[in-house]
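Design request, tokens follow.
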């Protein structure tokens, strides 16, 4: 098990990893279509984060990156076409994190939640706008802060 995630069962750990694909489809599909640019950018972000993030999440993103594309492709192939149905399913899946994140050390839970929200913003900005970047649709804007996830109050001192 990856350091920091030892308190989780294998199923719970897999849920934390799958959440990135769920977030991708939730945000990218909010406007009714999932663009290739959004999928490609989300995959790149998972790879970038495997070596460029707070050290405690490096191993997590390495693990995510090993199967992210396959997980995403399978999810897209099996997700309902109807946006409302798809969002309802993905919201329920993401809500599972509300029971899992508090099981982690506060520092890890806080930073993982922060990472999920940052990831959602990256996906939202991956399509549209100037040269295909920096545009967030109204549908994406409603979901970008992942309102289905409970806030985690950080108990330590924030690093610069």
């Amino acid at each position: 098990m990856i350091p920091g995630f030892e308190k989780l069962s294998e199923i719970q750990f897999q849920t934390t990893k799958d959440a990135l694909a769920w977030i991708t489809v939730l945000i990218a599909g909010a406007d009714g279509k999932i663009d290739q640019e959004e999928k490609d950018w989300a995959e790149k972000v998972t790879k970038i984060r495997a070596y460029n993030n707070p050290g405690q999440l490096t191993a997590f993103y390495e693990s995510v990156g090993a199967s992210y594309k396959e997980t995403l492709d399978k999810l897209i192939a099996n997700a309902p076409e109807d946006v409302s149905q798809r969002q309802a399913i993905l919201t329920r899946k993401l809500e599972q994190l509300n029971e899992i994140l508090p099981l982690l050390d506060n520092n890890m839970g806080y930073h993982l939640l922060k990472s999920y929200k940052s990831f959602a913003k990256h996906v939202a900005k991956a399509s549209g706008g100037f040269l295909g970047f920096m545009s967030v649709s109204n549908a994406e804007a409603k979901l970008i802060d992942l309102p289905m996830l409970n806030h985690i109050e950080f108990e330590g001192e924030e690093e610069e």
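Comment from the thread starter after seeing the answer: thanks! The radius of gyration is 15 Å.
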